[in-house]
From TrEMBL:
It comes from Gymnopilus dilepis. Belongs to the dynein heavy chain family. GO terms for biological process: microtubule-based movement. GO terms for cellular component: axonemal dynein complex. GO terms for molecular function: dynein intermediate chain binding; dynein light intermediate chain binding. Residues 73-164 form the Dynein heavy chain tail domain. This is Dynein heavy chain tail domain-containing protein. InterPro entries: DHC (IPR026983), Dynein_heavy_tail (IPR013594). It comes from the Eukaryota.
Amino acid sequence: MEVEDGGVKEAYEVIKRIDVLDVSVEVTEIWVAAENAYNERVSRLEIQIIARLTDRLSTARNVTEMFRVFSKLNSSFAEQSSKPQFRYLGACHMAQMRDLLPIAGAIIWARQIECQLQTYMKRVEDAPGKGWEHYAEGQKLQSESTAFRKQLDTCPVFEAWVQDFN
């Protein structure tokens, strides 16, 4: 399930170039405009994904075909977000600017991704209904979700930080 995301990347590039430490009125107005443009482009992308997903689900003849659609969506999601590294993201810089330790920023970021995953999995359950994980495609999707959730486990990262700190 491919979706154009060039607009999102362009909007992010605009935000990335803004000096967030400059709190002048002019820069604040530029930030608000760039943030609004970014949010608008992300919203359009979400609408596009929902429309394509709805189209594909409406043509599914049975639950197995529905799971194939969800499996393709999950594969696309996993490719974009498998093992993302916090330190390479803008979220790391934002955590540092808010005077958070990098470990705290990484934990917050992982929890946010986990919440998004939980929301997506709830949406998956809403379409075919309860018991979706008993189907073959559902089991595959459930196992991929569980594996991704394990990658988001922050306990080992925190424990390593505590050992380093000590």
